[in-house]
Amino acid sequence: MLALKYLLMLVAVLSIAATLIMSGYHFWLIFQFRRNLARGPEGAAAPFALGLSRLEPGPVRWRLFLGMMAVGCVSLLMANSITVVPSGMGSVRISQTRGTLPGTLYSGVHFVAPLVEQLKHSPDGRAYVYPIVVKDSVPALLYAWDEPQRPVQGPALELAVQVAAAQWIGLLPPPVVDLVSIAPLAPVKAASAWESLPSGEQQIHLRAQRFARVQAAQMRLHEGPAVLAGRLRRNLYETLRGPIDAAREQFRQDFFARCSSMVDYLDLELVRTLANDDAELLGTNYPGPMV
After folding, report:
1. Which runs of consecutive H residues, i.e. helices, occur in 56-137?
2. Which DSSP string do the residues of 177-233 spell out, in sequence order?
3. Fewest C-beta atoms under 10 Å: which of 54, 114, 153, 223?
4. pLDDT tens digits, residue range 3-48?
């Protein structure tokens, strides 16, 4: 395909160059003829007039010139429609009328509409994909493109993804609980702990989960250097004692005091978000889950 692209570019260059050279030469002949004709004396002899007639150029071949120019322009447009994404990189397609088009173009040869679309990729750029995790599924992805002039703010995007996941969970309808189950040929299946909770307590649990996600994400965003240092020293709790204790106390007052079946979602989020699912990174002084 690259050979076709280069062949079309060669045809375009040769057609346009030949058109300019041929038309330029023809107009030069016309100019020379008119200049010689103006220099000729009035009433010149027949041999002189015959010499001028031999130099008189023919009519301008507009059809030939326009046809060759059209061939060159069409070949150039076709060559520009063939684009290449380098190996190990990705690119997006940007339209002059519709903006950035959905979909990622990976390494290889792709076709775009010439003069209307172009591929955008940077050798120093990097793509980031953040999943929006809702319970055990990923209903959406956040895609960000990093460039030296516009670096991606990773902590801010992580916070946005976690807040979006928390809001998504809040929008999900509560599970439907069957009040009556008749199964004469099989034993009745016991309801799960979540299904046995009243609707009001379920809403409190969902708000507690959302609160825990936001608190952990804010610590990750605003205390980024401290989080990294705590992970290296394996004592995140000592490094972030103030924010963690404040969040634990607020969680205890807002949720544990109002719901007897409450679970320490804040502890789960601290382990997942700050400690990368390694509870030992919180340190030996961490008091553990609240009960």
Report:
1. 62-80
2. --S----TTSPPPPPPTTTTS-HHHHHHHHHHHHHHHHHHHHHHHHTHHHHHHHHHH
3. 54
4. 888 888 888 899 889 888 888 888 888 888 777 777 765 544 444 4
